[in-house]
Write a structure and sequence with these properties.
The longest helix has 18 residues. A 6-stranded mixed beta sheet has the order 1-2-3-6-4-5. Helices cover about 35% and strands about 20% of the residues. The termini are close together. It has about 270 residues and is of the alpha+beta class.
Length: about 270
């Protein structure tokens, strides 16, 4: 998050190309945003931030975010459990809501699984993890879909939240000279992923030694991240931040997004 923000979308900004010369994910998002430009009743903020913002008639704005998790791209079943995957499917969207300073209220969840998992307890366990986290954050599941896929698990998570009218923290709020702050510690999820790739797994029993507990903590940072929902709401209510962003893509990448949608940072910016 940023103590004061960096400001409004930089039209025509040149986004980095992928290493193979094709359009990067961010270039595609920029092109889609340009095609969808235009006013719509009740729309405050569209494509380009962590959430879209819709104006209600009761003095609140609704923030909406969507996340897609695909097996072998965003997770591997050999690394995780159905419960942890259910948790993460909601957590990634709750983090986006928190980055706007809003309170998450409702969720819609669509899941596609192959036939082999359909005949198992996978979905029951998956929803156990989802509902455990939803209960802790006061989020109500209001819809979604379940279907079969020819191969691999696909999860589509949509979460909606509320915030007082005009108070959603947008990336465009940041300005040159702002100081950048990060909540918590960095690198834990990346370290957990590296450990999983090297063959480490969560222990079935309680970790006893300090080293074992530290290892488990890093694995859980990757497998079951905890959204900073209360902190996001607290910062927004007290107007202590002018822009915030979920940094699940990494600090350097997501800070660049704030710079792109806000005003470019000067060469003497502070970290």
């Amino acid at each position: 998050m940023v103590r004061k923000p960096l400001n409004g979308p930089s039209r025509g900004a040149v986004l980095p190309k992928s290493s193979n010369g094709r359009r990067s994910e961010f270039q595609m998002i920029d092109e889609i945003r340009n095609r969808s430009e235009g006013s719509a009743r009740g729309l405050v903020l569209g494509i380009g931030d962590d959430c879209a913002v819709l104006r209600q008639r009761n003095g609140n704005d609704t923030v909406i975010t969507a996340d897609l998790l695909i097996e072998d791209i965003d997770f591997r079943l050999e690394y995780t459990s159905p419960e942890l995957l259910g948790h993460k499917s909601l957590a990634v969207s709750l983090s986006d809501i928190a980055s706007m300073g809003a309170k998450a209220r409702w969720a819609m969840l669509s899941v596609g699984i192959p036939g082999g998992l359909w005949r198992s307890k996978f979905l029951d366990r998956f929803y156990d993890g989802f509902f455990e986290l939803a209960g802790r954050h006061g989020v109500k599941l209001i819809g979604g879909d379940i279907s079969r896929t020819p191969d691999g698990v696909v999860v589509d998570s949509i979460v909606m939240g509320e915030i007082s009218e005009g108070r959603a923290l947008q990336r465009s709020g940041a300005k040159p000279g702002d100081i950048v702050f990060v909540t918590g510690s960095l690198g834990g999820a990346a370290a957990g992923l590296r450990m999983l790739q090297e063959g480490h797994r969560l222990s079935k029993g309680r970790a006893r030694s300090k080293v074992a507990r530290s290892r488990e903590n890093l694995l859980m940072r990757q497998l079951a991240p905890e959204p900073r929902s209360e902190l996001g709401i607290w910062l927004a209510k007290r107007q202590l931040a002018t822009a915030m962003i979920d940094i699940s893509d990494g600090l350097s990448s997501d800070l660049a997004h704030i710079c792109e949608y806000g005003q470019a940072l000067p060469s003497n910016h502070r970290w």
